[in-house]
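Question: Hello, beginner here. Any chance you could explain the protein record under this note? Any guidance would be welcome.
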Amino acid sequence: MNGGRPGPILPGPILEVQAVRHAFGARQVLRGVSLEVRPGEIYALLGPNGAGKTTLVRAICGRLKPDGGDVRLVGRDPYRDGAARAALGLAPQALALYPQLTVAENLQVFASLAGVKGKAVGEAVARAMAVTRIAERANTLVRQLSGGFQRRVNIAAAILANPKLLVLDEPTVGVDLTAKAAIGEALTHLRSEGVGILLITHDLEQAGALADRVGFLRDGEKVLEGPPDTLIADAFGDQVEIEVDIGEADAAQAGHMAEEGLSRDENGIWRRLAPDGYVLAGQLGQRLKAQGLAPREIRVRRPSLEQLFALVVETRRAA
């Protein structure tokens, strides 16, 4: 081990998954999934619950032998080869930390468990804390930290042995905006050093902002893959999204909104896509006022990864 200093960037993919299949009894969970993660790339794996993400991650981490297909991490089988598993850092969704120890003590323990030895332990711990911006809490007990800081410690523990591939499972669950920004900065820094990052997340805003490529799983199959902006442009063309906030709406008002082609999301915001959205937004505001509605706000924005996710989940679009 080199104490956490970045190593050379590999010439080929760090992770290769080829036609992986797996079933639990009669239930087929993975149906021939293929993907790769390259050095210095953030790849976001997206999909609804039950899509097969967790099973695929277990196969990538060498914790499950798939029924068919092939997984190669730095060219080796992670299920059979300890050297392949040593090239991987995992920050699981369930925090794997010792709450009764300080941040520094946790990282020292995990560095030793990862095979970092001697003075390299201190170097690895210092670098991991610097990358995740947690050095100010080095002597704080983990149980006294906020959820956001605990997530950052979890990531720091995963990078102590300078992994070639970093796998993060829902790294922003339960964190505030400050912690979310710090996590994003850490991942961007690691990418610049040539680390390949596999990000499994339901945080579509972060995935859209950080990922070089995204892959969508649905019912155990990869149904779409590519750069987020390219996929969004392909799916929606010149359409933009109109968002209307009218606050509480009675049945008659909701009916007027529906007549305008708007649908309400879980936050009570009404939305629709339109190719001439800026013109339509102005006309829409006038028509709603004529119906006795007073919109608090009407916004126009480009379609996002959230809209693409809904499209992929709700339709049978082919990869």
